[in-house]
Design a protein that fits this description.
- The chain is an alpha/beta fold.
- It has one domain: Alpha-Beta Barrel (TIM Barrel), CATH 3.20.20.
- 38% of the residues lie in helices and 17% in strands.
- It contains 13 helices and twelve strands.
- The strands form three sheets. It has an eight-stranded parallel beta barrel with strand order 3-4-5-6-7-8-11-12, surrounded by seven helices.
- The longest helix is centred in the middle third of the chain and has 18 residues, at 146-163.
- The structure holds flavin mononucleotide.
- Residues 19-22, 44-45, 61, 65, 107, 109, 134, 171, 199, 218-219, 223, 245-248, 267-270 line the site of flavin mononucleotide (FMN).
Length: 330
Amino acid sequence: MNLKTQYLGLELESPFVVGASPLGDDLDTARRLEDNGAAAIVLHSLFEEQLTGEASAMTAFTETFEESHAEAMSYFPESAEYSLGPEDYLKHIALLKSRLSIPVIGSLNGRTPGGWVGHAKFMEEAGADAIELNIYEVPTDEAESGPEIEARVLDVVAGVREKVAIPFAVKLSPFYSSLPHLARNIQLAGANGLVLFNRFYQPDLDIEDLNVEPKIFLSTSSELLLRLRWMAILHGKTPLSLSLSGGVHKVHDAIKGIMAGADTLQMVSLLLRQGPQALTALIKDFAAWMVEHDYQDISEMRGCLSHRNSPDSSAFERANYLRVLQLWKV
Ligand SMILES: Cc1cc2nc3c(=O)[nH]c(=O)nc-3n(C[C@H](O)[C@H](O)[C@H](O)COP(=O)(O)O)c2cc1C
């Protein structure tokens, strides 16, 4: 049984990767994740705002989590422990590199070209095997067009490429008008992979206090379908490595992700809810499913249900939209 996978040019034992989150901020947790089969670990992001000293947009992933998430976990580090500053972040990369044998991926998170991308170089020097560049964008300016926003994305990507020799992936949101075209340009700008997708942490409205409340909830498998569709559409059309992030909770989610075309599957919510041992269970179930279905090598499964390879590629397209609407009977 061979689960070995290539991602960003790195040789991984399997496609199961710990996604960007506080899970990598504590050495013991990171070691337990490795012991339970994690093939690589992505650290939480260093944010552009943090690096440029601007007002904080980081709260989406940090402070608000503990307040709004009821499923507290004993192994989940306190907010203060995981909000590593830029200096400590680099020391932490070096520490993890000295104590783990799996690849360690640093994460940078921002949206505008500028000096902050230089931090990618420091991550490389600290020993990071790769970088994940998260471009989390919420367009609110009516004067800025879609092509202008995409040009900015490409400038940020090119800025990182200029700084580092190690591979990096770009983590995107699904809200671009032509993702395949953007993917092509991201590759031409020097990136090595794509991570699909950012989850959007939608703020809620407090109608009594007339306020807007930031909220972050852990995912469920319902998040998977959006990722499967775009993974399937991109597989085979881009030389970029493809990583799926969002909604992998059960063995069938993982199988679908690989069959749609993912090189790796990133998990956060599952591991925050159930702890590192959930990985062992998932990998065991995945391998058992492969045996049962006569697959010897994960590469035999990868992309077999992509847009290009599936028996009914129109199911990913507009035709599917027409079909499903007509199926509904009253
Ligand atoms: C508490 C928490 C912290 C996160 N921090 C980051 C982060 O720093 N950078 C980032 O790119 N994504 C971050 N994410 C998003 C995850 O990496 C991932 O994309 C998302 O949770 C979807 O995967 P899941 O369905 O397996 O949870 C965070 C998610 C959670 C729940």
